Calcineurin-like phosphoesterase domain-containing protein
Amino acid sequence: MTCGGALLETLCTGGLTSPFRQEYAVAMGSRQQFLIIALLLHIPLFAYPILRLCQWLTLSPWQTTLILVPLFCSQIVARLYLRHANSGLLFWLRRGADLWLGVSPLLLISLLLTEIPVAAGWIAPTPAALGLLGLTGLLTLYSIANAWSPSVVKVSLESAKLRGTLRFAQITDVHIGSRTGDFLQRVMDKVNTLDMDFLCITGDFIDMPGIDGPQLAALRSCPVPIYFCTGNHERYEDLDQIISRLQNLGVRCLRSQSALQGEVQIIGIDDSEWPGQVRKELACIDIMQQRFILLLYHRPWGLGAAAEAGVDLMISGHTHNGQIVPFNLVVKRVFKRSIGLFRQGATHLYVSPGTGTWGPIMRLGSRGEITWYEVRPVGQHPHD
């Protein structure tokens, strides 16, 4: 999904987005059990750091309570009641909750590293707390700046199926809703400078209902065809309306369908939590083996099935490469292929770390990316 993709979303918020809440409540058999687990997840991230720092700063109980209660409850309120706020005061309250969601793991790690020197008496609690807050503030500012504008990353490949060089771009996990139309404009300004035959959007382009034309208008500036496959966040929101809005902007939405673009057959598969989705959907698509086969699928699952079907290149996103440390470490445990280029037989998979951000507009230990692919005929040099 997605801050580790959905990993930060589920771990930091206790899974309190509507789809996760429903799925977990059913799986556990009761809402009470779910809420207990959600609160337990909140304690290390949103209670312990605040209580410990307030203790080190010798704040009074009522001062501690005034700080603890809103910060501890922020994610529950934001995910249940503010997740659709996109204007006015409620929007900024949600943004504040999102920022705290990103800051809290940085604060927790810094605090854990500081506990030993404080316990050993090497540093007094109050200076330790002030230094820790200063360090967390600097890391936060860097993380925000790092998430501001994605880099262009080039991926070079060869294929015996091509007569001429194929160039195209990929953006993924842009998360309009968490991010604004201005961010999309910055992304498209970079995309439009690239020499490309088409643009691919591999899901989680929108993560809020009601995202309308003006917020997506930057797509109109793209001089080449745009192909889109769904991500998990589109499924969580107003999927049919999202598809309609994108189609009105000229985007070709491939929902377990294929399209021809020059020498390329482009296949897009709908996102699913089921690991067998790629195998199931590819079995229903007429794959033209004489063409270069490009598969768009949001999650980095199904490389084996893609290789068996004769896919040449599969491109995915979803993981955000953790987005904020330490979630990159967790993501690597959940997704065997979490970032970069992989190969199975004649099939390549490229996993993008994502272009935008979910929740907090922060990246630490990861970098937003616009991926630019150049696939040359075998034996052709880059300057040919």
